Each structure stands twice: as C-alpha cells, then as structure tokens.
C-alpha cells in the first residue's frame, strides 16, 4: 500500500493527466482515486492500450472508483513500444484494487 501511494505521487508528477482531449495513442495508463475528505490517494487500476481514447470511453473502472465515493483521474504515459511489459510489471509490483492479473499470479 505504501509503495502504491509513493508511486501515485510519481505518476502525478511525471505522467500526463487526462485533460478530456484524449487521442488514440499507445500508452500505459493509471486510474487514481482521491478521497476529498482525507486527501488520501491510491492507484486503482493500471492498463495499457494502443488506442487510449477508445479504451477509456468503454472503461468500467471509473464508475467503480466513484462508487467508493472517490474522484477518479486518469494519467497516462505515452510509449511507442514496451508498454505491455511495463503494465504487467507495474500490476505485479503495485497490485491495484481493480486489476485481476495480479490476483491470478
């Protein structure tokens, strides 16, 4: 949990925040949840895609984060290659709440 919090701060500082003009680009992305009262933040999902805009439009995780009474924000890291391997590494290391991959090994 502590590692996820530290990496969430890294994401905020170094990745691109969704400004609602997403393009269909290859990237690794993270969905962070923020508690407005406690100011706590956490990484709820890590993913990768070659078409970010299309993927985000159909994503179910933002609604799940909101159902926990948290504000969700998408951050992404554009990558031309290696994004799938980086996604898997992050999931295994950080174990976000809504990623299934880390729960299956």
What is this entry, summarized?
The chain is of the alpha+beta class and 105 residues long. The protein has helices at residues 2-14, 52-57, 61-67, 83-94; strands at residues 16-17, 27-34, 41-49, 71-78. A hairpin with a 6-residue loop joins strand 2 (27-34) and strand 3 (41-49).
Task: Give the overall pLDDT as a whole number.
Answer: 91
The helix/strand order is HEEEHHEH
- SS strand fraction: 25-35%
Tell the overall outline: globular
Strand element count = 4
> What class do helices, strands and sheet pairing give?
alpha+beta
Query: If strands are numbered along the chain, what order do they take across the biggest sheet?
Result: 1-4-2-3
Describe the model:
The chain has 105 residues and is of the alpha+beta class. Helix content is 36%, strand content 26%. The chain is built from 4 helices and 4 strands; from the N terminus they run αβββααβα. It has helices spanning 2-14, 52-57, 61-67, 83-94; strands at residues 16-17, 27-34, 41-49, 71-78. The chain has a 4-stranded antiparallel beta sheet with strand order 1-4-2-3. The model has no long low-confidence stretch (mean pLDDT 91).
Layout of strands and helices, then pairs:
Blueprint: H1 2-14, E1 16-17, E2 27-34, E3 41-49, H2 52-57, H3 61-67, E4 71-78, H4 83-94
Antiparallel strand pairs: 1-4, 2-3, 2-4
């Amino acid at each position: 949990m502590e590692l996820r919090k530290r990496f969430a701060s890294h994401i905020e500082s170094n990745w691109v925040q969704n400004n609602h003009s997403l393009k269909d680009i290859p990237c690794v992305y993270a969905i962070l949840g923020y508690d407005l009262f406690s100011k706590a933040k956490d990484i709820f999902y890590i993913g990768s895609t070659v078409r970010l805009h299309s993927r985000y439009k159909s994503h179910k995780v933002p609604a799940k984060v909101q159902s926990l009474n948290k504000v969700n924000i998408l951050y992404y890291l554009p990558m031309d290659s290696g994004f799938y391997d980086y996604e898997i590494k992050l999931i295994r290391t950080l174990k976000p709440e809504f990623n299934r991959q880390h729960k299956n090994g």
